[in-house]
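Predict the 3D structure for this chain.
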Amino acid sequence: MGSDVTFPSNGTDASGYLAPAAGGGPGVLVIQEWWGLVPHIRDVADRFAAAGFSALVPDLYHGVTTTEPDEAGKLMMSLNLAQAGKDLSGGIDFLVASPEVTSSNIGVVGFCMGGALALMVATQRPDVVAACAPYYGTIPYLDPQPDWSKLGAVIRGQIASEDTFFTPEKFAELEETLVGLGKDAHFTLHEHTEHAFFNDTRPEVYNAEASAAAWDDTLALLRSTLS
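Done. Predicted structure below.
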C-alpha cells in the first residue's frame, strides 16, 4: 500500500499517491482517467509497486473525484493543460529525486485522458522520460498537438478496436507520424474491446484477457527501458 504525498510544482505544491516498490525500483508516473484520483488508479499504482516499480499518481483534479460520466467530462474539459503539464513535470522531478526510485529515467503510463497526457509530458520531458505507455487516449483531446519531434521515449500504446472516443484510425495516423519522424512507436490493437477495457471496476467494458496482455506488454516496455 502507498501513501498520499505532496511535491513542488512550479512554485506551488501538488499532491498525489506514491506506491513504492519494496526496496525501491524504477520510477513510473501513472496518469489518471477522467474520474480523478479514484481507488482504481491507486490500485494500478499498487500493482506497479508489486511488480517492482515505484509509482506516483499526481492528483490533477486536486482532490476532486467523481463516478458520474457527465461530471467527469466537465472536469476533463476544464482541466488546464498547462497546469497539468507543470504538475506532471513536478511529479517526474519528485520521482527522480525519491530514495524509493532506483532509475535515472522514468516511464509514464496513462489511461484515457491520462493516455493523452502521457504522450504530452513525454514530449515535454524527453530529458528523463524513456518509456511511454498510453492506454486508449490521444488525439483529438490534446490541442494544440505536442511537438512530436521532441519525443525521446519508446512508445508502446494499447488501444481498443471498438473505441468511439479515440478511434483505431486516429492511432494509426499517429503511429505513421511518429515512425515517419524516426520514433520507436507502436500501438497494439486489442480486438473486440471497448474504451477503458483495462478498468476492472467497470464490468460493462472490462476485458480480462486484453488487460492481461496489455499489462504484460507495459511491464516489458518498462523493464527494457528503465535503468
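The two ends are 24 Å apart (CA to CA).
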